Amino acid sequence: MLPRWDDLRKRLETSKEIRDFLKKKLKMHTSEIRDEISKIIRLMQNDRIPKYLDKLERYIQELELKNPTRADLFKLILEVIKNEEDKFGLPEHLPAGESIDEEEIKERAEEQSGIIGRVVISKTTPATPYTFSFWIKYDNECHLQPGDMVKVRLGKDKCVAVVEKVEAVSDIPDPITAYYSWSYGEPTQEMPTAKPIIRKCDARVVFRSDQKHVPFIEPHEVYLSEADEIEEALNSQIEEKHRVLIGFTRDAFGTMVPVFGDFRYLFGYRAGHINISGKSGVAGKTSYALFLIASALSTAKKLGSESYSLACIAFNVKERDLLTVKDFPYRDMKEAIELLSKESELELDARMWEKAYDLGIDPIEIFSNAEIFQPGVSAEPTKYHFGLQDILNAGVDVFMCMFNPEDIDDKMESLIYSIEVVYRDGKTTFDQLINDLTIQINRSQRQHISIGGVPHHVSTIGKFLNRLNKILRSLSNCITRSQPKGHPIEIEKLEDGDLYIIDIKPLADNGKRMVFLYIMKRLDEMLEAKKEGVPSIRIGSTEVDLELFPSRVAVFVDELNKFAPSGRSKSPIKSSIIDIVARGRSIGLTLIGAEQLASQLDEEILVNTSTYLVGKQENVELTNKFYKWISEGLKDRVFYLQPGELVLSHERHAAPIVIRFPRPLHRVEE
Amino acid sequence: MNKVRKPLISPDFYVEEVKLRPSYEKFDSECSEIGKYNFFQYSTTVKFSGFLDGSMRLYKIGNAYGTGTPLYVASISSVVLYRGKDRLLRNTKYSRKANIVIFPKECYLNTISDREIKQKTEEFILNIKKMAERTGGIFIHEYELNKYGGVKFLEKYNNIWIFSDTTYEGVTALDSSSQKALIRQEDLFNPVRVKNAARARARFIMNLFEFSSAYLFVIDHRESKNSLLVDGLIPRFSRISNALCLKRSEYKKCVSRMVGFIKTPRVIPKDLDELKSLFTLKEGECKVYKGKPKDLEVYDEELLEAKEEITDDEDYFIFLRFRNIPYFESSSQSLVKIHLKPGEERAFGDIALAVYNERLPFPNDKSRFFNEPFAIEEAEKVAQASLASEEEIRGFMLSLVYSLW
Question: Minimal CB count within 10 Å: which of A202, A515, A620, B240?
Fold first, then answer.
């Protein structure tokens, strides 16, 4: 009788015990369970796992010594087979005259054991408390790449490490020897003996269950890591209630493992700020930010606690990146996951969204409720524009950042301060301001005019009027000249779980700067008051109630380097952003900044950041000191990162790791 | 006032250089030609799946009290590599290693009259035993190898410490009634002779280990038709049978699957015309001779060890060119010799072809470019890696010296 493989597959897929085991012990999800069972059936068909039941029993005994968890899985499988009357056509005993080959059993069990090599401590590869090297066995099916995770068995304890570098070496001294060695350079010649190639990996310790900070002193066994071990390694330092999903990594068996960040280290008050850098178009900076926002807001909502309330503001800087977040081609997450999993190239995304959804993350719900604000001088609630009084109320630096930094000299700065003193009266418009200053210049017989008691040279006022006219013309889509107050974005109405998307793409660069700083300053004021426990604050002439205002706000802005570029030059906006970022952590104002080149961003902003992410990046940029936290081996990988892959360094993880994230559901079609 | 101590050993540690001897020929007038073959016409029925080589390193660890007789420790290893279907070489469970402490103890005790030193000499051997056992090893006197079962004993243990007394010839000397002295009283003061005796003894024990590894490999792979390629000459039955407790039938079974590979033939047919014909062999040609093996090719030097009468049957030797550089005249260095024990119809052409096929890939060591099979080079590397390191032996020596203070 031939084995009924399809029936066996179906039975294993529907067996409650096996499903529960794979879910709980091996952290697998529906599609992963399906894949795992298909893989086991395939291996049985190819005799990599015995199909004779007596041999399978012996195999399980051997596997028990090497990988008890997988042995338990095979016990369940064997039980399912034995419970079937005809054993699914699988032979119970080996053919007569054949006996179990113990060597083969050991070899096969070893394949499933996950052991791949041993730690090597040598003169050239010393072990430190945080790094070590190991070699991996010669097996064409055993591969490791930078970013993969491995486990080192330390008796009862274990250590999980991330592979930073992989090298293959042989003792062939040079290419000339290799050439002659191959029958004097005859490539078609078959060699009776294959020259050994040894692969050596460098790894960085991510987690040690014994909590020790000592180097290895034995050539310990190195294993492929399994999902539960990686999860423990990465997440055990983070309390469950503080966990925010920040990506996924894969174990050696292809299972997606959620990677969590600590809410308090991402959004304050312990640490804060997230920076994402990578090549435009391929690194997926915006996609990742949206994934993170969805995850963070869902987590905050799940926590439902006043002290962990969170809202997000995202600036749309280019294209229609963020403006289409509501355009989902799916009704809900279940439908999205189902449809994605039907397409082979989106299967991985489906798997990640499935796990994320299980963790309570629902981007469709979060983004469907997002409010989108666009610039426009109209009364529509989704349009925003500013009058002179709105800007002056926000602060002189907001007013100043509309000007080119080169135009702001001491005289100009002094004039703007005087204008703020005199014209911040709740009723002056831009037109009136220009008119008033023009009249004063025309009437004046002297070189200096007093504004707010401070004398200003007429040429300074002339320069001011000249630049202001130009600014007002270029920002006509977000500034009202004839009204003292416009319709600014009502940040004070932000509540827990809200997502505001502010489109600044149509604005000129100075407009972008002004709107960004306006929002940041408002948030700064309100979050500071909220942290202090003040029930309400006065903004301009309005009293704002802070009861419903979230305790934390995350602000996402792409091309952050435009607002705070690197270099010594100081501009009003740069100084203000640096100041806000430096204090943001303690008041719950987090900046999720993205830029193509981290080296173009101000150093102070980077050093205040607790979580770094780097997507595909050019090698020239990676030589910069801002990427020193990525080891050399991992840096090589950065150049080859695929869209949806990032190198992550989070305050609560001991070493940088490579993570994946699913593509945004509103951009799947792309 | 402190009593002046008498140390049995004054430490004097260094690695004895094993000098590379120039390749020289010894003419063999007794051998006879069987024939000349073009092995390209033969089939590839013979295949090698095992490769055997051994390695040894000799350390001088000190000088004995009163006579200045050098004391040696030899680290030896034998390695069988297995080549699987994937063409990769893997080490096997048949590989063995041992450390041998070599000293003409009996001769020394007969010469020294000091009771304290005599006592310390016995204590010294006891301490070696203790140290071996403490590190999970086993200690034996060399003459006990036979007592414990020879090859059966070597099958069971890997970390072995052996004490070898070079006073008499042969490893089983104390067990034999004919005790021929190797080191006499006057030799105790002749460090060169003691060193040569130590080196020859260590080399001989290494050969015992090598044959034991080969035997265990062949027995375990008796179902396979593949052969074992051995570096050097296959040892004679009469030299190893007693120490390894082997029956002639067992020996024959084993050697029928062994092919000896002598990369630098030192013994060459005497006739000058014959000699010329060897050096003008073309690629694919081989000449087969029948003759008796000479120890020179096993030990690279005249043995100080016992030389029994060679009573074995005559063996076969095949000369062939192993590697040739295209477009260049063949080098004399590429002439290699293959050693076969007599057996049922040895297929010379097939064996020569199988050996010739091992010319690829080339070894990594350029000095062995012409005449070293890669697999044998690898076996040698593994064997060398298995040897006790200088630090290990130095530590051992210091522990021994201190244990006697």
Answer: A620
